[in-house]
Input
Amino acid sequence: MPELIDRRQADEALDQALAQPTLAARLLTAAADHLGADAPTGPLTGLGWSRALCAATITTMRDVPAAAANYAAARAVLALPDTAPSITRGEYALRLRAAALGL
Output
């Protein structure tokens, strides 16, 4: 009986999927993009962080099933780097990008 799955093609597809950043990593990276795009030398505020995270969530999770989005968001929250009172938006964006690499 012939094999129904081309193993080489399946292996290539799996390698390609594993090479992509996780959804949680993409969420953190998108938030970093938003923070770094607008006044990166300005202070990181609660409102600024909330807006960046909301915008990143909308762009990253738009077409993702709720269960996968919730799981990715939980992983991203657990990986959030610490902040400091005087941290800039750009510095926190760099920390977010570093944290995303670990996901």
Notes: The chain is about 70% helix and 0% strand. Residues 22-101 form one domain. Residues 7 and 14 are 10 Å apart (CA to CA).
